[in-house]
TrEMBL record, chain A:
Name of protein: 3-isopropylmalate dehydratase small subunit
Gene that encodes it: leuD
Record-linked InterPro entries: 3-IsopropMal_deHydase_ssu (IPR004431), Aconitase/3IPM_dehydase_swvl (IPR015928), AconitaseA/IPMdHydase_ssu_swvl (IPR000573), IPMI_Swivel (IPR033940), LeuD (IPR050075)
Family: Belongs to the LeuD family. LeuD type 1 subfamily.
GO BP terms in the entry: L-leucine biosynthetic process
Known role: Catalyzes the isomerization between 2-isopropylmalate and 3-isopropylmalate, via the formation of 2-isopropylmaleate.
Record domain Aconitase A/isopropylmalate dehydratase small subunit swivel: where: 5-124
Top-level lineage group: Bacteria
Signal peptide extent: none
Subunit comment: Heterodimer of LeuC and LeuD.
Pathway the protein acts in: Amino-acid biosynthesis; L-leucine biosynthesis; L-leucine from 3-methyl-2-oxobutanoate: step 2/4
Organism, as annotated: Euzebyella marina
UniProtKB/TrEMBL annotation, chain B:
Domain Aconitase/3-isopropylmalate dehydratase large subunit alpha/beta/alpha stretches: 9-457
TM stretches of this protein: none
Catalysed reactions, semicolon-separated: (2R,3S)-3-isopropylmalate = (2S)-2-isopropylmalate
Pathway named in the protein's UniProt entry: Amino-acid biosynthesis; L-leucine biosynthesis; L-leucine from 3-methyl-2-oxobutanoate: step 2/4
Record GO biological process: L-leucine biosynthetic process
Cofactor needs: [4Fe-4S] cluster
Quaternary structure annotation from Swiss-Prot or TrEMBL: Heterodimer of LeuC and LeuD.
HAMAP family: LeuC_type1
Protein name as annotated: 3-isopropylmalate dehydratase large subunit
PANTHER family in UniProt: 3-ISOPROPYLMALATE DEHYDRATASE (PTHR43822:SF9), HOMOACONITASE, MITOCHONDRIAL-RELATED (PTHR43822)
Function per UniProt: Catalyzes the isomerization between 2-isopropylmalate and 3-isopropylmalate, via the formation of 2-isopropylmaleate.
Pfam families, per database record: Aconitase
Gene expressing this chain: leuC
Family, per entry: Belongs to the aconitase/IPM isomerase family. LeuC type 1 subfamily.
Amino acid sequence: MAYDKFNILTSTAVPLPIENVDTDQIIPARFLKATERKGFGDNLFRDWRYNQDNTPKEDFILNNPIYGGEILVGGKNFGSGSSREHAAWAVYDYGFRCVISSFFADIFRNNCLNIGVLPVQVSAEFLQKIFGEIEKDPKAKFEVNLPEQKVTILATGESESFDINTYKKGNMTNGFDDIDYLLNIKKDIQEFAENRPI
Amino acid sequence: MSAKKTLFDKVWDSHVVHQIENGPDVLFIDRHMVHEVTSPVAFLGLKNRNIGVMHPEKTFATADHNTPTINQHLPVADPLSANQLKMLEANANEHGISYWGLGHEKNGIVHVVGPEYGITVPGATIVCGDSHTSTHGAFGAIAFGIGTSEVEMVLATQCIMQPKPKRMRINITGELQYGVTPKDVALFIISQLTTSGATGYFVEYAGDVFKNMSMEGRMTVCNLSIEMGARGGMIAPDEKTFEYIKGREFAPTGSAWDKAMTYWETLYTDDDSIFDKELTFDGSAIEPMITYGTNPGMGMGISKSIPNYDETQGAASSYKKSLQYMQFGEGDAMIGKPIDFVFIGSCTNGRIEDFRAFASVVKGRKKADNVTAWLVPGSHKVEAAIKEEGLLDIFTEAGFELREPGCSACLAMNDDKIPAGKLAVSTSNRNFEGRQGPGSRTLLASPLVAAAAAVTGKVTDPRELMQEVVAG
Ligand code: SF4
């Protein structure tokens, strides 16, 4: 599925300074019953966000109107657990275009890249600086510059560069996906398939 | 002279169709397993692009994540679940994919039925939209979980784009103690590495412990590779592997078998191969394990006490939040904690050997009154074996009921949800907050530990009960 191109994002951020946020927290299994990619944002962090009677939990960050923006900042090992792409869909559908953490689980990172959410891995120190900045000023803005592979705390000008492979970067900045690429080399794949032993 | 290669390199490299500079490899996929939850949007994507499935004969569909485990002969009550099942069936039929739906004799959990029917073979690349696809690595295959965009990718092109992971080897030497199972070995490794310790790596398990392990045990270990963050785990195929596969329905036969064997026998890590990381543990030091927190890395020997924060890795706030959720305190002993539920099943521990182990402890005993137990076979084949081997009689005698196959309380998408606040000993793979139902609390353990808890109503070292049996 094609998605919007990603270049430079300037936004406030929502902090979630918890480690090992797993995909069952991002979207619990009981909300995976849809057969279309719609509406998952409503159930993002469902059980942290709502009580069992569906009233909002006041102390959860997404229910605090002071915080908002298109960047989600999470603790180390963000997105561990299940392969459900619904987790990335929920993040996207809620309105986040970028997740910053000091470490991502593999499948979640891939899923994000495949649907147009940019996972930005920064050092543990820089992550703390970002959390610190939001704590000081919930309206603090950050710039995520994909072409330059750099994230900047605008108030202080401090920045750090991040890694992304050239291919995926190209996809994100152009809004392409892998299937477009693979369909272009279909003939090679067919030839390869014919020579498989099993 | 050709370069020394690891098992992983041999299989990976032989599947690379294309290499993209400073980008992922295009990897050919030999087997694609599909289930009802992570596939509908992928099939929809094909429709939108107006393309079909490139290799339906390499694609296998089963319904498992969202199926009821009682009264499977009746229509599925939940309309959303019923719709997902209907969609999978329609999609499979439309694209000519074999579909083992609810009620089909081959139905079961995707990672249980793959090996059972010989779909899983050494040296293959196997993917599925479920992270525990790593199970199939037990056969020397490269197997890993993928997201829905990738499911669409594989349906459309039989390829996936993946950066090549780094290589890690984990050696477990020596001999396991009595009462220590493959599940304990896996939980031990995860407790040592943490849930992110192998992120970015593909793991090979080696050493005597794995050599001596049954195929089902190897599946349990490889299954849990993802819980330490690894892309997958694998074990070099040996006589045991070939023996297991031979004669299964989808396994090669005749000259195809001989050809396959010629390839399979080359699948081992060459001496002096280089790993990016190598770890060695003493298998004889592992005891039956149990988890106490909200990720599988928070595990310890069953006789130990919950560590204080400063003895652990990671942030204090996250550790404390986790224990608070579990309603446990630092320094608590696990032994003796009263429990409410026992779940035996899942692709981690829902095979026949797991039910045999469970039966060995509950035989001649009674289910504790305070315990609700869900015994869920991984497949109809497992269910049939339970009946044939007389295990069902042992269970019935001891006050247990057997349910029908499916993922069940492993992810609690169907009605099998552990109620809020209740404490469950589960043989599945994740103890995340609410994984087994909103507010549920999970202790991960082996079938032996689950059995000991089921008959005593509290966390109990199974060796105490087993010794009685041995002595008697
Ligand atoms: S049993 Fe659990 S882990 Fe295994 S396939 Fe089903 S949901 Fe996934």
